[in-house]
Amino acid sequence: MYSIILAFTIYSIGNAFFIQSIWDYPSVPSSIKALIIIIFSILYFHKTMVEAKIEKLFHEPLIWINTAILFYFTGTLFFYILFNINLEFSVPFTKVTILYLKISTVLLYILVSIGFWKSKKASIKR
Question: What CA–CA distance (Å, rounded) separates 87 from 22?
């Protein structure tokens, strides 16, 4: 995991200075970041299901937060991949995709808030 994070950091810095212009939106590193986070999120769900220690997933705060992260980064992956192409293609279409990104962000915050709320309720019961 540390080697993945280190490799991504080195690639992102190299991309900013040598591959893409520093003034362009860094769509390639953002896409790679989204893929890495999606993979980690799916691995967490896999680990949770294989262990089967949680009786009610609906009441588990980390499930809510991980679901928020999975929805957000899955939903914005194509935004990251296609942003520079969208900008050159059509400004109105780019505005629609940015609206989609804003909706994904609101969904992220709502689900994370539910996770924190569930966490508070769980700590009060203990």
Answer: 17
Gap between the terminal Cα atoms of the chain:
32
Q: Which residues contact 99 (CB under 8 A, 6 or more apart)?
A: none
pLDDT in tens, 18-30: 777 666 665 778 8
Minimal CA–CA distance to 83: which of 65, 106, 101?
A: 101
In angstroms, the CA 113 to CA 67 distance is 12
CA proximity to 82, closest of 100, 91, 94, 74 = 94
**Residue 112 near residue 68 (C-beta atoms within 8 A):** yes
Please check whether residue 93 lies inside any domain of the structure.
Answer: yes
- Domain annotation covers residue 19: no
Residue 17 included in any domain: no
Helix/strand/coil for 10: helix
Of 3-7, 30-34, 38-42, 119-123, which one has max mean pLDDT?
A: 38-42
